[in-house]
Amino acid sequence: MVEHFRKILTGQFEAALCMLNDCVRKCPEAHWDGKIANDTFRQVAYHTLFYVDLYLSPSEEAFELRELHRRGGDERSNSAPSIGLSKDESLAYLAICRQKAVATSASETPESLGRESGFSWLPFSRGEVHLYNLRHAQHHTGQLSAYLRRIVEDGERWWVRTGWR
């Protein structure tokens, strides 16, 4: 059963990140800093990737800030809004998150999925953190996609059911 869950989890993480990848790639440079609610496309893309990366870690304490976080910002900080990354840096970060999602899914066991989340503000199991993480990623990918539909006249609309396309 856990092997089946890991396969499903990997497929859905890859699908969600593939759709995010499509949004980042399709955003014209002239609109990279376009406004989406209170943030820019750049900031929303970074925020999404930051939290995918964070929640794929076993716990908040185990999360390791990368060099790119020094440029983009620590999304957990309330003192200053993150500035995000360039489009190319965002695509590179996305590739890192995809690899981490595949590796994390493969390493989960029935015991690890049932333990506490590892994040004090998420009072549920590690298994549920993965579903929460996917919902969060899709929420913001939807924001980015809606923004692109408004600015790109002939943008292709597509949905990824499972896996990376």
Structure description:
The model has no long low-confidence stretch (mean pLDDT about 90). The protein contains 6 helices and 2 strands, in the order H-E-E-H-H-H-H-H. It starts with a helix and ends in a 14-residue tail after the last helix. A hairpin with a 2-residue loop joins strand 1 and strand 2. It has about 160 residues and is an all-alpha fold. A two-stranded antiparallel sheet has the order 1-2.
Elements, N to C (H/E): HEEHHHHH
Mean pLDDT: 92
Strand count, sense and closure of the main sheet? 2 strands, antiparallel
Q: What's the tally of helices?
A: 6
Instruction: Report the strand count.
Output: 2
User: Which spans of ≥5 residues are poorly predicted at pLDDT below 50?
Assistant: none
How much strand?
Answer: under 5%
In brief, what are we looking at here?
It is built from six helices and two strands. The chain has 165 residues and is an all-alpha fold. Strands 1-2 form a two-stranded antiparallel ribbon.
